[in-house]
Design a protein that fits this description.
six-stranded mixed sheet, 31 strands, alpha/beta, twelve-stranded mixed sheet
Length: 770
């Protein structure tokens, strides 16, 4: 009796020490295997209760002693799935409840709050192993688990459950269902789970012949690629066009078919060993390439591919396989690398519809590879580069979007329309800024339709009801026109202020900073085209401290396609008609009547808007040095000028500081070097050092006059690695705190984030007039 009484007392004491807690976890916690991992931790710690997905996060109720609760919470933080991201864990004690087991409850949708939507995740090593060992998934090209596979591209609504994705038509077989409901299985509640018996299937169309058997499909695709043919292949977020990256005739044919004269193609290597054979890849770059995000990464060449892949550049956009199909393809393919470029024609969005792909891509490819799972949200491959051991995104799409940027203020209900080039839009949800995937250049009906469709989908998916619209000042941008058609209060935001605010928002800065915005184009407050701006910025407002001197842009946008026009414009400003007496090589291939027409336009100020653009300055120097006089794609001249740099000189040219930064001395120096026969690579390098010196000099002036020590760098010109790397190093060496963009593009793909941050801050300060 005494033993029985002692046992009862111990149980009663344990019950007294045990409390019930409610835990709310927010962040990227859906579609990443979060609930089963919570279950396994609870099971390990002998805890009872439940875990549940809701559209506003993951909720847990658990009974535990305080010390065990602490162990539970620590384990949640420390052992989270690789693709997850915990923003906050909030817990509080609630009235005691009695639980007999720990269970996973069915997902519920209880409010307009939302949790994060997982980006797509590259296939994991465990699934690649299962491809060879699980009898119902041997070589199954859609294998996935809770740790990998499609997410954003297939989701239609929250919470993230199978019936709300494009997997809903595929009814799980008994074996897949048993894995799906087994909480200890790696495929527990993996919404795209499927196998050879119940999942999506590939189909290959070669002219009038259709192949359904996957082994035959794989063999046929390999044979065609090895024969130098072009294949249209459905990827994770849209169609790709592929060919042998070492076959010059194949790559030239693809370039002609896409009407893509000079822009480099991206390639996919078989594995990291093949990649390292052809490119220089350091530890940081390898880590990013082999991560679950699997972006295209710009790498320096070691061994050349077909010349038409990179068309004269010394870098190649490189990636590794991220779909199961890619791995299966390279197992059989006798090629170490293929071109894998977006499946679209000209500037249209990447194609996602099977029938449309067959209609549009059959004429330029030998075969079209489709599968029967719909792509609901199209996403291009993301593109990045590494400098100063940091990843810098150029295009933010697959495996990054729609992960939010966390803000230090409330952005609820704000819609930011973005810019025109490389557009992304942004929506505000509580303290989250949710950037869309890469939309593209808003210059045609097809891309505008993609834009408007995506806006509607984001509003629905994230329970967004716009109450404030923010757009660029430029009235002719299609994004601005779209915004102005909405019957909602709105404001316009200056382009370069938005660039700086974008970087500030990424780094959660909310104070006065030195904002250096260098890019190609953006309408200024004075009606001129800005782009070489040194600003004193906070999120609410800015003051223009200095800028590159204004230069006429003869022909407006036509000058961006003909950099020689900008060179003539600078020279005409400094030398007048005597520029023809300089006998510069770059003018020899330009018809004399065209040069005189431009000079006449400049004389009479006809269609020659003034610009302070850094991009147009780079155009002028690229043309002046005869490196690039005519552009076949956006920013080609600045890219080729950067590619011409070398490390043999630290010299720079002179310039004159002031509210307007005058560059006549620099142009005098360049012309002198050209006439003296100095190597173009040396001239290009000296020019780059001059830009770096101008940046540093202006940062110092602002620091001295205003006492600001934080420097924020943004704008497309900071995608120039030569400049970004050295500017960061120089400023930090001199004691500045330097912030440049990393996970948000410095180009116009990041503008919408800055627009949203400015609007939110102004709203908080009541600076907005309806």
């Amino acid at each position: 009796m005494l033993d029985s009484h002692a046992n009862t007392t111990e149980i009663m004491q344990e019950e007294v020490l045990t409390n019930t807690y409610k835990i709310h976890i927010q962040g990227l916690v859906q579609g990443v295997g979060f609930r089963p991992y919570i279950y396994r931790i609870a099971h390990r710690l002998n805890l009872n209760g439940w875990v549940e997905n809701r559209n506003d996060g993951v909720f847990i109720k658990v009974s535990a002693k305080p010390e065990v609760l602490e162990e539970f919470l620590n384990a949640i933080k420390m052992e989270a799935p690789a693709a997850s991201s915990i923003h906050s864990i909030v817990h509080h004690k609630i009235p005691k409840e009695n639980f007999t087991v720990f269970e996973i409850k069915k997902s519920e949708n209880k409010s307009d709050e939302i949790t994060e939507v997982s980006p797509d995740i590259g296939v994991c090593d465990e699934c690649l192993s299962d491809l060879k060992t699980q009898t119902h998934r041997i070589n199954y090209p859609f294998i996935n688990c809770t740790n990998c596979g499609p997410r954003f591209t297939i989701i239609k609504d929250l919470p993230y459950d199978r019936e709300k994705t494009s997997m809903s038509p595929f009814i799980m077989c008994e074996q897949c269902r048993s894995e799906y409901i087994d909480v200890l299985d790696r495929r527990f509640h993996a919404q795209p789970v499927a196998c050879l018996h119940c999942g999506p299937e590939y189909q290959l169309r070669i002219k009038d012949r259709t192949i359904d058997k996957f082994d035959e499909i794989l063999t046929s695709v390999c044979d065609l690629l090895q024969q130098g043919k072009i294949i249209a292949m459905k990827g994770l977020g849209g169609y790709h066009l592929a060919c042998d990256a070492q076959n010059e005739e194949a790559v030239k044919s693809l370039r002609k078919a896409k009407n893509r004269d000079g822009k480099p193609f991206a390639v996919m290597f078989k594995n990291i060993s093949s990649l390292k054979e052809f490119t220089a890849c350091d530890e940081t770059e390898e880590e990013l390439l082999t991560s679950w995000r699997n972006p295209i990464l710009l790498l320096k060449d070691k061994k050349k591919l077909a010349p038409s892949v990179s068309v004269g550049f010394e870098t190649t956009g490189s990636m590794l396989p991220y779909m199961p199909f890619h791995h299966l393809l390279f197992e059989q393919l006798k090629l170490p690398v293929i071109v894998l470029t977006s499946g679209n024609l000209s500037d249209e969005p990447i194609i996602i519809d099977n029938q449309f792909a067959i209609e549009r891509l059959s004429s330029i490819s030998s075969a079209v590879l489709t599968y029967n799972r719909d792509i609901h949200n199209r996403t291009d491959d993301s593109v990045a580069f590494v400098t100063n051991h940091k990843s810098r995104l150029i295009r933010r799409s697959r495996s990054y979007a729609p992960s939010p940027v966390r803000l230090s203020f409330n952005a609820e209900g704000i819609f930011a329309a973005g810019a025109e080039l490389v557009n992304c839009f942004c929506i505000g949800k509580a303290d989250q800024a949710i950037l869309s995937q890469h939309i593209g250049d808003l210059k045609n009906l097809e891309t505008l339709e993609f834009y408007t469709e995506s806006v509607e989908r984001f509003n629905r998916l994230f329970r967004m009801k716009p109450t404030l619209i923010v757009h660029d000042l430029h009235p002719d941008y299609l994004s601005t026109k779209y915004a102005k058609e909405l019957d909602i209060p709105q404001i316009g935001v200056q382009h370069h202020h938005a660039h700086i605010a974008s970087c500030m928002a990424e780094h959660q800065l909310d104070e006065k900073t030195i904002g250096i915005a260098l890019d190609g184009i953006g309408l200024g407050d004075d009606g001129n085209i800005w782009g070489g701006e040194f600003l004193i910025c906070d999120l609410a407002d800015y003051e223009r401290f200095s800028h590159f001197e204004y230069i006429p842009m003869p022909g407006g946008d036509k000058a961006t396609k003909n950099p020689w026009r900008m060179a003539v414009s600078y020279l005409y400003k400094y030398y007048g008609s005597a520029l023809l007496d300089l006998k510069l090589d770059f003018l020899k291939d330009i018809a004399e009547h065209e040069i005189k027409l431009v000079m006449s336009m400049l004389d009479k100020s006809i269609n020659s808007p003034l610009t302070s653009s850094t991009g147009r300055l780079f155009d002028a120097v690229a043309a002046l040095t005869n490196i690039c006089t005519k552009s076949t794609f956006h920013a080609e001249a600045p890219m080729r000028l950067e590619a011409a740099t070398n490390l043999t000189t630290d010299d720079a040219y002179d310039f004159e500081l002031g509210e307007s930064i005058r560059l006549k001395k620099m142009f005098n120096g360049i012309i002198g070097d050209l006439q003296a026969g100095i190597n173009k690579a040396v001239i290009a390098t000296k020019f780059h050092h001059t830009i770096i010196n101008i940046i540093f000099a202006n940062a110092n002036l602002i620091k001295q006059s205003h006492g600001i020590n934080k420097v924020v760098l943004s704008g497309g010109s900071f995608q120039n690695r030569f400049i970004l790397e050295r500017v960061e190093e120089l400023l930090e060496k001199e004691g500045f705190e330097v912030y440049a963009q990393e996970n948000i593009p410095a180009n116009d793909g990041g503008i919408a984030l800055g627009q949203l941050a400015i609007a939110a801050k102004r709203r908080a300060l009541e600076m907005i007039n309806d």
